[in-house]
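Section: Multi-chain targets

For targets with more than one molecule, the full set of components is provided together so that the structure can be written out for the assembly as a whole rather than chain by chain. Components appear in the order listed by the source. The example entry contains two components.
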Amino acid sequence: MTSSPHKKNTPAQKSALSEKEKIKQQEFQEEAVEHINALYNYALHLSMNPDDAHDLVQETYLKAYKFFDSFEKGTNCKAWLFKILKNNYINKFRKNAREPGKVDYDLIKDFYHSIKDTQSDSEDLNAGYFRSLMHDEVYQALNSLPEEFKEVIQLCDIEGFTYEEIANMVESPIGTVRSRLYRGRKLLRSKLNEFAKKYGYNTDNEETP
Amino acid sequence: MSAAVDGELTPKEREGFEKHIVKCPSCLSEFKEAQKTKSLIREKIVRFKAPQSLVNSVLKLTDSLF
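Its structure, encoded as tokens over all components, is:
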């Protein structure tokens, strides 16, 4: 991606551009680049492949920078970037995506372990619920959900977007986001129960002895 | 229910919801379960840092365009 498809400007044009461009660059770096970790995680969840995630993030920033003038200052830059990344992902990968609903657990597991060793943020292991379930099992359960449920749970619970922002990203009404979250979480709980039983963990908890 | 878990209820809706769950054990238990599922996801899904090479190349992107 370092070879730019854009025409190089002559030195005169370059100096005329530079002041305006410098301000844009600075604003862009302050507003947009701070979301790079969140975008990378989102790209990993979508593509399940570090190389593709790398490219997706890079292309997202390239597009975002080109269209940064159209970004409404004061609105949520992270939500704007996520939307660009998702559109990019759809254009790139959806055409030859695997069948919906079919999940390759080995692929997830391999992916998860390969990347887990390299770098992770600080982990909080104090979950009070299904505390014996491992990270990759929760990850698998989440990934086994139909795409429309998985997506809203990711955006809401992992990325912390509001319903309004999610509705805008998935291009559905807020009521749809609400009901997908409700059904998605319910489905997720039953998957986690299945996992917990399969691996022989004790699923009893205080509320349902 | 999900709006209650995510703090997305309007003050009026919230008031109604709170009044209801103290009287309805099945909604209360479902509310607690949904809260647990949300916190489980938040706690167990590991977050990765973008590789430094990616950060560098994004920072360079803005320069290389012009």
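Residues 2-64 of chain B form one domain.
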